[in-house]
Amino acid sequence: xxxxxxxxxxxxxxxxxxxxxxxxxxxxxxxxxxxxxxxxxxxxxxxxxxxxxxxxxxxxxxxxxxxxxxxxxxxxxxxxxxx
Length: 83
Fold this sequence. Notes:
Layout: E1 9-13, H1 17-26, E2 29-34, E3 43-47, E4 53-57, E5 78-82
Parallel strand pairs: 1-4
Antiparallel strand pairs: 1-5, 2-3, 3-4
């Protein structure tokens, strides 16, 4: 059986930048950088205790939906990948 020993980062597409950053700060993640959120690049946040990094991707083009595909034009908020 494959044993997962580490998660490097989790990609999450978000709709509300300020609310999302505040939410993940409450969960113990520190803001590292904004790599160009409005141009589709991630906001980077890291949890010191676990070493897990969040890539908050955006901006979403819709407030909700069920797709998780990154290769279509409409971008819904939500989980995109774990690496």
